[in-house]
Design brief:
The complex is a heterodimer of chains A (112) and B (111). With 112 residues, chain A is mainly β. Chain A has strands spanning 3-7, 10-13, 19-26, 32-38, 44-52, 55-58, 64-70, 73-78, 87-94, 102-103, 107-111. In chain B, strands 2, 4, 5, 9, 10 and 11 form a six-stranded mixed beta sheet that branches. A five-stranded antiparallel beta sheet of chain B has the order 1-3-8-7-6, with no helix packed on it. In chain B, a hairpin with a 2-residue loop joins strand 6 and strand 7. The chains are: A mainly beta (112), B mainly beta (111).
Chain lengths: 112, 111
């Protein structure tokens, strides 16, 4: 069966520090991969999605970047965090176009 | 770009009352998906509707896709405390890979 792992689950970072969130999927090949962000009590904002290795589509211009070095690995990064980067980051995968999304447990980031 | 609005933003009900959340789009949707997110958790897929006028049921939950494929609704009959959470609709744009989520409806159920 397919599983998705996302880490770390929680982190507190100072403003200006770097960020790396990692997500891996097991049990499937060539998934579509997504990073969403959810501010407290708000909806889900699509940040990046990828349909294949090295293929990244950015939805919101900001100080975040994403990379897909392997088929089932998706990384969200920042060189310098801002206060506004605080939120709940969710990695997800799907198969095919318009398929249902399977979300990871999420990473709760607090920037101080 | 496509925008999917949901109403209401919040809903408090007494256990046993019914609940409905509505999802509206200014453009025709190729499909609509519904997700539930428990407090502190991650969204979990509930169902997908594809056909115009489609109605699907899951126990006490009834999902409907409008005839014009521009709106959808989720109705819960006789709510229970286990129904607490935020319900999101979502749709992909023109058959594309990215899924745009609605603003969500937060449901609280009181005993």
């Amino acid at each position: 069966s397919q599983t998705i792992h996302q880490w770390p689950a929680t982190l507190v970072q100072p403003v200006g520090s770097p960020l790396s969130l990692e997500c891996t999927v097991e049990g499937t090949s060539n998934p579509n991969l997504y990073w969403y962000r959810q501010a407290a009590g708000r909806g889900l904002q699509l940040l990046f999605y990828s349909v294949g290795i090295g293929q990244i589509s950015s939805e919101v211009p900001q100080n975040l970047s994403a990379s897909r070095p392997q088929d089932r690995q998706f990384i969200l990064s920042s060189k310098k965090l801002l206060l506004s980067d605080s939120g709940f980051y969710l990695c997800a995968w799907s198969l095919g176009v318009g398929g249902e999304l399977f979300f990871g447990e999420g990473s709760r980031l607090t920037v101080l | 770009g496509q925008q999917v609005m949901q109403i209401p933003q919040y809903q408090h009900v007494q256990e046993g009352e019914d609940f409905t959340t509505y999802c509206n789009s200014s453009t025709t949707l190729s499909n609509i998906q519904w997700y539930k997110q428990r407090p502190g958790g991650h969204p979990v897929f509930l169902i997908q509707l594809v056909k115009s006028g489609e109605v699907k049921k899951q126990k006490r939950l009834t999902f409907q896709f409008g005839e014009a494929k521009k709106n959808s609704s989720l109705h819960i009959t006789a709510t229970q405390t286990t129904d607490v959470g935020t319900y999101f609709c979502a749709s992909s744009t023109g058959g594309g890979n990215k899924l745009t989520f609605g603003t969500g409806t937060q449901l609280k159920v009181e005993l």
